[in-house]
Design a protein that fits this description.
By secondary structure, this protein is α/β, with parallel strands linked by helices. It has ten helices and 64 strands. The strands form nine sheets. The protein has a 33-stranded mixed sheet, with no helix packed on it. A 14-stranded parallel sheet has the order 33-36-39-41-43-45-47-49-51-57-59-61-63-64, with no helix packed on it. Residues 32-70 form the Leucine-rich repeat-containing N-terminal plant-type domain.
Length: 1013
C-alpha cells in the first residue's frame, strides 16, 4: 500500500468520522449566540397558537420549528415561519379559526442581525398589524431569499432593501391581503432602490401602490438576471415613459388587476422569450391583438376578466405551443371553431363567462394533453353525452377538471361518465340535464367536487356512491330526485365536508344510533323527509357551520343538546316544520330561520353578531322588552328581524337606539298595543311592517328620517290623524305604502304625488275625505309597465327575498310574494272621497288594480279609463256614478275582476270578450242592459245623450204611481228602517257595538266558509 493510498484512506476516514459525528450528535451544531438571538426574536412575537413551543432556553436551536442550520458549520441559514396555508374551500370554520390563530403577531426584533449567515427568511402570511417593514432588514447582507408577502405590513417600502446585493428572490406581494382600508395600502413612490439588486431573479410587488412610481418599467428593465416579474394590482396604467424594452432574461410577466386600457401595451410584444403572460383583470377591449401570435415561446396566456368583445380569432387556435389559455369573463361571442383541435399542447383551457353559443366541436377529441376544461357560463346548446363522447376519445384517463355549469345543456348523463377515472372536479349545474345519475359515477374514485344542482335529474341516488370515493363537496340540490336514501350510501363518504341536497323529494331514514362517517361543514337537506323525529345523528357533526333541514317533515320537540350544539353555526334554517318547545338562547352567528314552526315562550336571546332573524309564524309570546332592551352581550349587528304572526303583546318598547343596524323589520300580525315609539324612527329603515296589531296614535315624526324607505305598512291598526305630508316630502324611494284599515282622516296630501317610485298605494278603509288629487298623474312608476328587476322589492338578504305584502285585489285579500315586484295597485276604497274621477288618473297606464269602491264619488266614468290596458282588477262599486259604461272598456283585455255594482249607470254594456265574461253581479244595482244582465236592450229606445242629465222632463206613458211609486216606497222604507233600526244603534252605543260585532262575526264565518269551499 502506497503512502498516497494510506493518506487517502485516512482522509476519507477523518471526513466520514466528522460527518458521522455531526449527524449523530447534532446538538453541537447550534451556535449559542444565534440561539440567544432567536430567543430574543421570540420575545417580541405574539404566538397565540403556541406554534413556537419548541423554541426553549435549552436544546438544539437547529431542531426548532422553522429553523434550519448548516450541517457543517452549525450556523442558522434558514428561518421559515410561514403558517401552513389552508384550503378554504373544504376547511371547517373551526379549522380556519385554527389557521388564523397560527398567525404570528407582534414585531420583528433586530436580533435577527446576529444571524450573520442567514440567507433565507420567510415571514409570509403572518399578521404584523400594519407595522412598517423594518429598515434593518437591508443590513442582512447574506440574504438570498426574502418573503414577506401577505404578512400585513404597512407604510412605504424601505429603500434600504436595495442594499441586499446577493438577493435573488424578493416577495413583498399582498402585504395587506384581506385589508380593505385604502389608508393601509403599501406604496412606493419610486423604485430606484431596486437598481442595486443585480442578482435578483424573482420580484413580486403585487398589491403595492405604484401609481406614483413612474420609473417601474425603466428600473425593472435594467435588472439583468430578472426571470419573474409580478406587479399585479399595483394601480398601473398604460402610460409608462417610452423606453426601449430589453428584458434579457424575463420569462414570466404578471400585470394582472391593473388599469391598463384600452389595448395591450406594444412593448410587451417585443418580449419574444416570454413563457407566461398574465394580463387578466384589466380594461382591455376590442379585438384580441394578433401580435400575440408572434410570441412563439408563450405557454401561459391569461386574458381573463377584460372587455374583449369579438369572436375568438382564428389565429389563436393555431398557438399549438400554448399549455394554458384563459379568456374567462370577457364578452366573446359566436361559436367555438373546429380549429380548437389545433391547440395540441393545451393542458388547461378556460373560456367561461362569455357569450359563446352553439355546440362544442368534435375536434375537441384532438386535445390529447387536456387536463382542465372550463366552458361554464356561456350559451352552449348541446346534448351533454356528445361533449362527453368527444372528451372520452382524447383524455378520459387524464382529465382532472370539467366545468360546463350554466349553459343550455340537455339530454342524459350516461355511463360514459365513469370513463374519466382521474376526474376530481365536475360541475354541470344550472342546465337542463335530465334522467338518472348514472351508476358509473361510483368509478370516479378521485372525484372531490361534484355539482349537478339546478337540473332536472330524477330517480334515486345511485347506490354506487357508497363505493370508496374522495368526495369532499357534493351538490345535488334543486332537482327531481326521489326515493329513500339508506345509511349505506353515506358509508364511504368519509371525506365529505359539504353536502348540498335541498329541494328534492328524497327520504332519509337513519337509525337513532347511527353515527355518520363524515364531519361536514355544510349540510343542506331542505325538503327531504327526515322526520317525524328530530334527526339525532346531527349531534355527531362537530364542525357544522351551515345547517338547512327546512320543510323536512319533523314534528318533534327540539332536544336540549341541539341548542348547545349550534354554538359553531353561522347559518341555521329549520323553518317550515312542526318543531316545538321553548328556546333558551340561540348561539348562531349570522342567520337564523325558525319560520312556520310551533315554538313557544318568550323570544330567545341571540348573539350580537347575528345579522338575520326569521321568527315568523310561531307562537312566541310575551313582550318585546326582554328581547330588545335587556340585551347585554355587545353591540348588535342585526340587519333583518322578522317577528310576524306570533302572540307578542304589550307596547313596543322605546329602546331601539342600540339596534341602529336594523334595516328590515316586520312585526305584523301580533297583539302589540300603544303608540309607535319615537326611537323606532331613529333606525335607518328600508322595510317596516307593523300591519294587523292594535297600535294607536299618529305616525311618529322621526320616521321621516328614513330616506331609504322602500316599504311602509302600518295597515289594520287603530292609527289616526291626517296622512303626514312628510311621507311624500321625505321618503323619495318609497315603493309600497299601506295605511289600510285605520282611522286616518282629512284630505289626501298632494305631497304624495312626489313619490315617483310608488308602485303600491293602499289607503283603503279609513276616514279620508276630499277629492282624488289630480297630481296622481305624477306617480311615474304607475305610468309605465313594471319590470322585474333587481329593485328594492327583490332586496336580497342572506338568501332570502324580502317581498311579501297583503293586497286587496280582484275582490279578495291575497298575499303577493314572488310576483310583488311586478304589481302596481291603487286602493282608495271605503273612505269619504267626493267629486269626480279626475281624468288625469287615466294616465296611470301601468296600473294593474284600481279600487275606488265605497266612496261618494259622482259624475261619469272618464272614457280614458279604457286606455289603462294593463288593468286586471277594477272596482268602482258603491258610488254615485251615472251615465253609460265607456265604450273604451272594451280595450281592457287583461281584466279578470270587474265590479261596477250599485251606481246609477245606464245604457248598454259595451261588447267585448272580457266584459261579457263577468257575471251579472258585477253590474247589479244599475240600469244596464245587454249581456250578461237579463235586461234586453233591443226592446228599448237608446237613451238620449242628455237623458240622464239633471232637470230632464221627458214625459212617458206610465201613470204617476207606476213612474214614481218605487221611489216613494224607498223613502218610506228608509224612514221606517232608519228610526226603527239604525237610529237606536247610533244613539244607544252598547246596542251599536253589539250589532256590529255580530255582523263582523257573521262576515268572518261566511269568509271562512267561502275559503273552505
Amino acid at each position: 500500500m502506497s503512502a498516497v493510498t494510506v493518506f487517502l484512506i485516512g482522509f476519507v476516514t477523518i471526513v466520514a468520522t466528522g460527518i458521522t459525528f455531526c449527524v449523530g450528535n447534532s446538538r453541537v451544531l447550534c451556535i449559542d449566540s444565534e440561539r440567544q438571538a432567536l430567543l430574543t426574536f421570540k420575545q417580541d412575537i405574539i404566538d397565540r397558537s403556541n406554534r413556537l413551543s419548541s423554541w426553549g432556553d435549552g436544546g438544539d436551536c437547529c431542531n426548532w420549528v422553522g429553523v434550519s442550520c448548516n450541517n457543517f458549520t452549525g450556523h442558522v441559514y434558514k428561518l421559515d415561519l410561514r403558517p401552513p396555508t389552508p384550503d378554504y374551500a373544504i376547511l371547517s370554520d373551526a379549522e380556519i379559526g385554527v389557521y388564523w390563530l397560527s398567525m404570528l403577531r407582534g414585531k420583528i426584533n433586530p436580533s435577527l442581525l446576529l444571524l450573520k449567515h442567514l440567507s433565507h427568511l420567510d415571514l409570509s402570511y403572518n399578521n404584523f398589524g400594519d407595522i412598517r417593514i423594518p429598515q434593518f432588514l437591508g443590513s442582512m447582507k447574506s440574504l438570498i431569499y426574502l418573503d414577506l408577502s401577505g404578512a400585513k405590513f404597512g407604510g412605504a417600502l424601505p429603500h434600504q432593501l436595495g442594499n441586499l446585493s446577493k438577493l435573488q428572490h424578493l416577495n413583498l406581494g399582498d402585504l395587506n391581503l384581506g385589508d380593505n382600508s385604502i389608508n393601509r395600502l403599501v406604496e412606493a413612490r419610486n423604485l430606484q432602490w431596486l437598481s442595486g439588486l443585480s442578482s435578483l431573479k424573482y420580484l413580486d410587488l403585487s398589491g403595492v401602490d405604484l401609481s406614483k412610481a413612474t420609473d417601474w418599467l425603466q428600473v425593472t428593465n435594467k435588472l439583468p438576471s430578472l426571470i419573474e416579474l409580478h406587479l399585479s394590482a399595483c394601480f398601473l396604467d398604460n402610460d409608462p415613459p417610452p423606453i426601449r424594452v430589453n428584458y434579457t432574461s424575463l420569462s414570466i410577466l404578471d400585470l394582472s388587476g391593473n388599469y391598463i386600457s384600452p389595448s395591450v401595451p406594444k412593448w410587451i410584444f417585443s418580449l419574444h422569450s416570454l413563457v407566461s403572460l398574465d394580463l387578466s383583470g384589466n380594461a382591455l377591449g376590442g379585438l384580441i391583438p394578433n401580435s400575440l401570435q408572434n410570441m412563439s415561446s408563450l405557454k401561459f396566456l391569461d386574458l381573463s376578466t377584460n372587455s374583449f368583445d369579438s369572436s375568438i380569432p382564428g389565429w389563436l387556435y393555431n398557438l399549438n405551443h400554448l399549455e394554458f389559455l384563459s379568456l374567462r369573463g370577457n364578452f366573446l361571442q359566436g361559436k367555438i371553431s373546429s380549429a380548437i383541435g389545433n391547440l395540441s399542447s393545451i393542458v388547461r383551457l378556460d373560456l367561461s363567462g362569455n357569450q359563446l353559443e352553439g355546440t362544442v366541436p368534435t375536434s375537441l377529441e384532438n386535445l390529447v394533453n387536456l387536463r382542465q376544461l372550463d366552458l361554464s357560463n356561456n350559451k352552449i346548446d348541446q346534448v351533454i353525452s356528445e361533449i362527453l363522447q368527444s372528451l372520452s376519445r382524447c383524455c378520459s384517463d387524464d382529465l382532472k377538471s370539467l366545468n360546463m355549469a350554466t349553459n343550455n345543456l340537455s339530454g342524459h348523463l350516461n355511463d360514459q361518465l365513469g370513463l374519466f377515472k382521474s376526474l376530481s372536479y365536475l360541475s354541470l349545474s344550472q342546465n337542463s340535464i335530465s334522467g338518472l345519475i348514472p351508476i358509473s359515477i361510483g368509478n370516479l374514485s378521485s372525484l372531490k367536487y361534484f355539482d349537478v344542482s339546478e337540473n332536472q335529474l330524477d330517480g334515486n341516488l345511485p347506490q354506487s356512491l357508497a363505493q370508496p370515493m374522495s368526495l369532499e363537496y357534493m351538490n345535488i340540490a334543486y332537482n327531481l330526485l326521489e326515493g329513500t336514501v339508506s345509511e349505506l350510501l353515506f358509508s364511504s363518504l368519509t371525506r365529505l365536508r359539504v353536502l348540498r341536497a335541498s329541494q328534492n323529494k328524497l327520504k332519509f331514514e337513519a337509525n337513532s344510533n347511527w353515527i355518520p362517517p363524515f364531519q361536514c361543514r355544510t349540510i343542506e337537506m331542505g325538503y327531504w323527509l327526515l322526520g317525524p323525529k328530530f334527526p339525532t345523528w346531527l349531534q355527531f357533526q362537530k364542525d357544522l357551520s351551515t345547517l338547512d333541514i327546512s320543510s323536512a317533515g319533523i314534528s318533534d320537540v327540539v332536544p336540549s343538546w341541539f341548542w348547545n350544539f349550534t354554538s359553531k353555526m353561522v347559518s341555521l334554517n329549520i323553518s317550515h316544520n312542526g318543531l316545538e318547545g321553548e328556546i333558551p338562547f340561540l348561539p348562531v352567528h349570522k342567520l337564523v330561520d325558525l319560520r312556520s314552526n310551533r315554538f313557544t315562550g318568550p323570544l330567545p336571546g341571540v348573539l350580537p353578531d347575528v345579522a338575520t332573524l326569521f321568527f315568523t309564524n310561531n307562537s312566541f309570546s310575551g313582550s318585546l322588552s326582554d328581547f330588545l332592551c335587556d340585551n347585554k352581550l355587545g353591540k348588535p349587528k342585526l340587519f333583518l328581524l322578522q317577528l310576524e304572526t306570533n302572540l307578542l303583546s304589550g307596547e313596543i318598547p322605546d329602546c331601539w337606539l342600540k339596534w341602529r343596524g336594523i334595516r328590515v323589520l316586520n312585526m305584523g300580525n301580533n297583539n302589540l298595543t300603544g303608540k309607535i315609539p319615537d326611537s323606532l324612527g331613529s333606525l335607518d329603515f328600508m322595510f317596516l311592517n307593523l300591519r294587523n296589531n292594535k297600535l294607536s296614535g299618529e305616525l311618529p315624526l322621526t320616521l321621516q328620517n328614513n330616506r331609504d324607505f322602500f316599504m311602509l305598512d302600518v295597515g289594520e291598526n287603530q292609527l289616526g290623524g291626517s296622512i303626514p305630508k312628510w311621507i311624500g316630502e321625505s321618503l323619495p324611494n318609497l315603493v309600497i305604502l299601506s295605511l289600510r284599515s285605520n282611522s286616518f282622516d282629512g284630505h289626501i296630501p298632494e305631497e304624495l304625488c312626489q313619490l315617483g317610485s310608488l308602485q303600491i298605494l293602499d289607503l283603503g278603509d279609513n276616514k279620508i275625505s276630499g277629492a282624488i288629487p289630480k297630481c296622481f298623474k305624477n306617480l311615474t312608476a304607475m305610468v309605465t309597465k313594471p319590470y322585474d328587476t333587481d329593485a328594492v322589492i327583490d332586496y336580497f338578504v342572506d338568501g332570502e327575498f324580502i317581498r311579501s305584502e297583503l293586497l286587496v285585489m280582484k275582490g279578495r285579500v291575497d298575499e303577493y310574494s314572488t310576483t310583488l315586484s311586478l304589481v302596481t295597485t291603487m286602493d282608495l276604497s271605503y273612505n269619504n272621497l267626493i267629486g269626480d274621477i279626475p281624468k288625469e288618473l287615466a294616465s296611470l297606464e301601468g296600473l294593474q288594480s284600481l279600487n275606488l269602491s265605497g266612496n261618494s264619488l259622482k259624475g261619469k266614468i272618464p272614457d280614458h279609463i279604457g286606455n289603462m290596458r294593463l288593468l286586471e282588477s277594477l272596482d268602482f262599486s258603491r258610488n254615485h256614478f251615472h251615465g253609460p259604461i265607456p265604450v273604451s272598456f272594451s280595450n281592457l283585455n287583461f281584466l279578470s275582476h270587474l265590479n261596477l255594482s250599485y251606481n246609477n249607470l245606464t245604457g248598454r254594456i259595451p261588447s267585448s270578450t272580457q266584459l261579457q265574461s263577468f257575471d251579472k253581479f258585477s253590474y247589479i244595482g244599475n240600469h244596464l242592459c245587454g249581456p250578461p244582465v237579463t235586461e234586453d236592450c233591443s226592446t228599448n229606445v237608446e237613451t238620449p245623450p242628455n237623458a240622464t242629465n239633471e232637470g230632464s222632463h221627458v214625459e212617458e206613458s206610465e201613470g204617476w204611481f207606476e213612474k214614481y211609486g218605487i221611489y216613494v216606497s224607498v223613502v218610506i222604507g228608509f224612514v221606517v228602517g232608519f228610526w226603527g233600526v239604525v237610529a237606536p244603534l247610533y244613539f244607544i252605543r252598547s246596542w251599536g257595538l253589539a250589532y256590529y260585532e255580530k255582523v263582523e262575526s257573521i262576515r268572518l264565518k261566511l269568509s271562512a266558509f267561502r275559503d273552505r269551499f
